[in-house]
Predict the 3D structure of the following.
Amino acid sequence: MGSDAISALYDSLTSQSKHTSVATILRFFHSVRVATQNASFSSIVSSFRGLYRNDDVNWGQVVLTTCVIAMTGCGLLSSLLRRKRSGLKYARAQRSAARNNSTKSSKILSSSSEEDYEDEDYDSNASLRHGTNPNYTKKDWPSDTQQQSSDAYETDPGILRKFTTYNSYTTSIATYPAIRTFYSPHPHLARLPTKPTPIPLIVVVHGLGGSLAQFHHLLTSLSNVSSCFGIDLPGCGLSKFAPTDWNAYTVEALSELLAEAIDQHRDREAGQEIILVGHSLGCSLSALLASSASPVGAKVKEHIVGLVAVCPRASPPSAEDTAKFRRALYVPNLLFDLWRRWDRRGGEQSASVMRMAGVAADAETRNLQMRFNKQSRTPVWRRMAWGTLPNYDNGGHAIGGLPGQEVWAGIRMPVLLVAGETDAVTKPVEVQKILKFFGDSSSHTTIDTSGSSIIPDASRVHDQMSPPSDDLVNEKAPGVQISEKHLQVGQRKRVVKSAILPAPASHALLYDRATYRTLAGIIQDFLSSNIDKRLGLGWQLQHMNTSGKWDVKNLAKWKKVTPVSERIANTFVALKMLREVDEEHNPTTFSAKYRGRIHAVIDISHESPVYNPAEMEKGGIRYYKHPTISKIPPDSGRGTRLHRFGQ
């Protein structure tokens, strides 16, 4: 989000100043801060002018301000008591651990003592699982070490849980002791070619206030064609809020952390390349790593071969806006939390949800957005937001903060820019600005997307989208504007494509049911067409079929199973796994035989299919993937979504 989110929040708090008390509190606090700095009696007196109107006491605002001050005192006292109790619990846990002579790896998490770590939206008694290591269970973790949301853990998607570990990373700026790290190797990585290099590693980067969970649907798709990697930035998602130094949360610091994490997980010996997929602020972090004009991330820069920027920001805020945002971020956590609660009034219909998901979002998307908003911790948000703001020199040049024209123009590789038509946080005009950084935007040409392949995903598109009338099941949203241009940069060819998804596409298009499937298809096409053809599912199927290794595990047993069962409850049928190389039970013959009788195939397996779902969709039968993981029961939310889909 970056400065756009700060601006939206600031405007929501200061609008209609004559009718809202929140704006009065903002002005009052800012006046008190200035008075304290100046240490003059006149400034202290002026700080109370907002409490008077026409020389008469405005008792309503006096009472409100008194209540706020009282709440602040209660909050500070409560925080001190909680920290004291937490310290006692932690000491007891440490003594118990010493008695048991327990040893803990470098990945074990430690407690944070930062007083503003506490956030009213978080359960300080929650715990986290230690990746997929069976030797670690929830009881092995001190109950107060994480101070993380139980909701964030309980609602964590299965694919993330399965491939999660907690790692410590050290950069030139700070040590981040417990970063939630996701690494999902391609299910058939050993069977794919490694010359001249392995298939590129796809790295996802979330934005301000976000987490890896927002990439759930996209990762479900992309993990079928490549190894995928990502981290929850410190204090976000399931990562620990440590360190608490504000310098550890600047754009440069977070980019360096990202580079260090990537370098530790890519196949360095084989020269594995990297593709960055960023959302919102994640686009800015990715741009710093990918650009030749940025010194950040030197150890991975030469290996980055592509960039996908979803809802990007083109440049830092102006000097005037930066000053305004800094004033808003001076507000203490307690008051900031009060403002956030005020902004969340109305639940799924609140301004905080509508700002991100859009007014046309369905109930499920709004519910997800409300959950993500609550999981975003105020002290972390303030630090990261502050880190996006630049300093301006006497010449008016921005130093630090969000990258601008120089950094974007220094990206010399295939780039895909995606925006939502109704995005109120990073508007589509940002994409047009970035395109101008690359050169003459008049050279763009429109390309046809109707033939793009559809890759497996976790759900369907928005209910309001009517199916196409032709034979091809086309999941692309109508009106998607995709353009491309080819620029010769030295000896390399730079391809820049842009896509503006139509309404209701918003800042939440990563997880909005109306858009995430379309987004996955666009990204998949871009990767296989412009970066590495081996990232195409069709190419991989052909390679595996040629080598005879991409197939069902037990062919003899598979042949004994009936291809399609009788109807179950007059609604469902059980389908034997299709085989791309089978003469009879393959996607093409299946769709030709059952089109009109079978509407869709719901694949609940976690593994990649041994056939190309796009071939089945061309025949008129839709394909949806709701992956489940062996030995991990699906959560109630997944069951509810599957039930809704069946209905």
In short: The chain has a mean pLDDT of 75. Residues 59-99 form the longest helix (41 residues). The domain at 551-646 is CATH 3.90.190.10 (Protein-Tyrosine Phosphatase; Chain A).
